[in-house]
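pinging the channel bc i need a second pair of eyes. not urgent but kinda urgent?? the chain im working w is below, pasted from the shared doc
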Amino acid sequence: MKYSFVILTCFIAAFIATNNSMNAQTQKIGYVDTEVILKQLPEAQEADKKLKDIATKFQDTLVAMQKDLTGKLEQYKKQESMMTPDAKKKEEDQLKAIQQSMMQYQEEKFGNTGEIRRLQENFLTPIRDRILLTIKEVSKDEKFNFILDKVNPALLYADDKFDLTFKVLDKIRRNSK
């Protein structure tokens, strides 16, 4: 993570050095720690509390499912020697189904595309959007050209006059003819 930040910083520094040799304009680079900002905002703290409460409920359900599975497994082991092969198979299939159901529940709630992740995005997206808008406003007010995130190596703001996207695209199109 820090390695990416160093590379990004070096890239921007090289860009600025190259750009400075073309014109005498001074570039200003700043950074913010978005984690500190999020921890300080009451609405982010409230969202975090809501997420933790919901996650705790989901975790409690998982613990109950695990206890149920453990109890049925212990009961099966006690009765296994007295069971017919068909009864054993039926009971084992039932235990596997319970285990799969538990794993599916865990994935649905805590997985990468699970409910917790979706709720986190729903709660935090408006807050992050507000932070980015404020970063843009402060950057313009303070005349910063680039703002980086200290925690997550990302460029949060770049002055539009440094956007070379269409120049690069134009050059690619001209060179491919």
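so The chain has a mean pLDDT of 87. and Residues 42-79 form the longest helix (38 residues). — does that match what u expected or am i reading it wrong
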